[in-house]
Amino acid sequence: MKHTTNGSLMTDIILETFKLNGLLVLEGDLLINDLGLTSARWKVLGALSNGPGPMTVSDIARMMGQSRQAVQRLSNEMIQAGLLETQPNPKHQRAKLMKLTGKGKRAYEQAMQKQIPWVNSIAENFKEKELKLVSSLLEKLISQLDS
Amino acid sequence: MKHTTNGSLMTDIILETFKLNGLLVLEGDLLINDLGLTSARWKVLGALSNGPGPMTVSDIARMMGQSRQAVQRLSNEMIQAGLLETQPNPKHQRAKLMKLTGKGKRAYEQAMQKQIPWVNSIAENFKEKELKLVSSLLEKLISQLDS
DNA sequence: TATAAAATGACAACATGTTGACACTATATA
DNA sequence: TATATAGTGTCAACATGTTGTCATTTTATA
């Protein structure tokens, strides 16, 4: 059995995704390491910042597409670091709600102030139409795999 | 400072790349775990299969865009597992050349026999033109970051 | 209501990746 | 040729992710 034309192109995209992911994590860490953040913590801050409000660890994990255990460990560390705090969850006795502290909010804002010029500069070499197409194709691919 | 239109779209693409990477690794592991392979080992087999011939660990690492130490550990394990073997390197006394064993070749072929129908099926929901555009944009993005 | 099923936090084991440091080898250059 | 520079294997520490298991809590259902 052989790759179809599309299958071969999709294989290229998959390998590119692996490589790009590694590069992006490295760049992200580099961008914000002076803020006491890492790419992993940044993603948690982002989930809480862009989410509907305080969320449980499991909510955050589902939003990020990661295991709740991974997010749990990060969250615990981030509470120790003063970036997150818990508040009681009326819906669940054990699953406390996570929210950003003032320090967490400031860290996220500072991170975004670094990310914005960085990403704007990278993105200016592309056409808006192309970026839209890529984003929507990746989204479609994710929802196909995320079953 | 704010995101430009392109910067905002590129940020979406970055977050999608994180999520897609995780899903792809999981799917890959699932696809081939009955062959005694993992996504990580598969990538090494792929590098050697698609490369110009026997390569050093450092060569493979550069090709995969990963640290040589990570590839070294995988390679050592894969030699133990009989998937790879070394041969002397006339160019370098310590940096031996890595090549696939018969078992390694068969494992890679079996993996591809699983990957091909899987990726063909996923890819048939997309247009060739779009896939080409996505692949080339990702490639361009990688080369921008890979400095 | 009683009980089965699902969700959650905690802990452990493991896989995969990074970086740093060290000794050794190969290569470029003064 | 002598020496600085770069590449390489090895080892260690660590970050980030997975899965499995267990006890507990919540939710769904018979």
Automatic annotation (TrEMBL), chains A, B:
Gene3D superfamilies in UniProt: Winged helix-like DNA-binding domain superfamily/Winged helix DNA-binding domain (1.10.10.10)
GO terms for MF: DNA-binding transcription factor activity
Database matches in Pfam families: MarR_2
Domain annotation HTH marR-type: ranges: 6-143
SMART domains membership: HTH_MARR (SM00347)
InterPro entries for the chain: HTH_MarR-typ, MarR/SlyA-like, WH-like_DNA-bd_sf, WH_DNA-bd_sf
UniProt GO BP: response to stress
Domain of life: Bacteria
Coiled coil: none
Protein name per Swiss-Prot or TrEMBL: MarR family transcriptional regulator
